[in-house]
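Q: Can someone sanity-check these two? First one:
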Amino acid sequence: MAALRACPEARGKPCAVLEADVDPEAIIEKVKLPLQAVNDAARETGIGPGWPLNRALVRCPDLKVLTPDPAGEAQLLREMIAQAESITPDLEVACKDTLLLDLSRTSSRHAAHLGELEVADIWPLHARAATPDLARLAVRHEDCHERLVTSRDIARLPLELLHFLPGGDEFLPLLKDWGLSKLGDFMQLSRQELTARLGPQSGAWHDLLHAKTCRLLRLHRPPESMEQTMDFEEPVTATEPLVFAFKRLLHVLSARLAARYVAVKTLRIVFHLERGGVFLREIRLPEPRVEEGELLRPIQVLLDSLKTGSNVVGLTLDVETTLPTAAQRDWFIRQLPQPERWTDTLAQLEGLLGTGKVGIPVPPVSHRPDDFKLLPADGHTPSPQGGFFPSNSMPLRRFRPAAPVMVAADADPRQPRPLALLTGPCRGQVMETRGPFLHSGHWWDPEAAWRRIEWDVRLAGDQLLRLAFTPPDRWVIDGLYQ
């Protein structure tokens, strides 16, 4: 719909958007790319999302391929959020085209307005269910639109909807080989046997489809915008006028920060150029800052090495805020080095070597000699893909003494893998594990010898904790990660 808004002459014709941004003139070279979305006119010809482009063109030769419009998609999402907030403030942005609304505290009169929502001549599709995940799955199928869906209704839907669940793509071919075609076929399988064969994730799917789990929404709270823009009467070529302009912008920004009791974590600067383009720079601060002078210092370092290739006709300054940090200084102990100097040094190095050439070299997961990748050197390293453990160590709050628990584990007597916690302060199914980590000592002394096995586990409620097993059968919770 965002692409059609940018190309109104295509309305009423069969149209599709590819998974990747492709030049329409080069479609012949991308004939195997899958379709990301299609309109109603294209759907009436029998094609749908996921079809390869070459197969879709055989079914519909008049199919028009549109260029994705990320800016239009973001604008549509903002309009959807604004309409949804008129019904309830408790909503979650599940993805760029899906919102989850909590209607439990909303009157039936407001809930009935779901069918009256209109966003830019678009009627959003909706479905209601007892749990958020069940509603998110139901709205993907046309048979569930504008209905209150139960687990019995979900059972009639095709098995391909598992594609929208976490990890569903991995096991979907295997389930089809088993002869399953409906979600109901999957729901009739034994949960215990599924978990034993496919792992804890399949058990979580089984509970989700039977509406046995109801999680809390990750509520959307739009941040208050502090964006400021300044246009120059004449194009600026020197650094001094830019510094003067930033002082004015930061003076206003500092007052807004003090009034809201927040601090700046990231500075986003957009230079509007005379030739018509923009030049974007982002500055991450080592510590949250509020004072005007401390915010101006990294900007001055940036301006000293700035090369835009054109005169500047305007500025846009925006920030990402966080809670301010507090520290108690001792009169008789030397203070730590100023952390802002680290950012200044990084900015100077990037100005000397070029953007993207300064960072922390980290060996990737490969055996190639001298292979490495650069991570940002600003202390904001991204978390690893495909796991729940972050790249830096998490603090472990240990129990003193350790809390004894009963654990359901597999039958391996030497290294039993935990499957579920049955007693203790944290109970539930183990969704993911890391380990075992073996520890032992005094093996030369039979009376003083000791041995224990540690596991880092994640429970169904996203609790991270450390389990310890002491032969022959003692399990304890060593601590919680926070």
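And here is the second, same format, sequence then tokens:
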Amino acid sequence: MITRRIVAIMLALFIAVGMTPLALAQQISGVLGGKATDEAKKPYDDYSVQLRNPQTGQVVAIQPLSAQGQFSFDKVELNQKMLVELLNQKQNKIVCTEGPFELSAAHTSKTDVNIECGKKPATAWLLAAAAGAASAVAIGTRSASK
């Protein structure tokens, strides 16, 4: 009974103020940032980073790298996947893409994006796959010898 009263009072307040809970939730945004020092070469002002919505293909935001090779986008829409693209402005081409990344109400900030075109993670995946295959062969061989 008390819960219904609280909900009714909250809805009345939202209506009085002229705001719906959905509109209030849509105003909340997140922060997406990181660095591109592994892939971009100095001077970093030759590069910019852009956010692209992979569903629509539209560039949502663009900004130049800082002098330290870092970037940060505030006001990133929540619950939308975003690709982070490193753009070489002199050559007018995308150097590489990371992501997609998705911010949510529970996780409104991701500031450790490292644009490196997947070089190191690919190596790690290959090593893990090789270790897994070696383990499977060792277990299979040992099981067969019993």
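A (reply): Looked at the second one. Helices lie at 2-17, 21-27, 119-145. The chain is about 35% helix and 35% strand.
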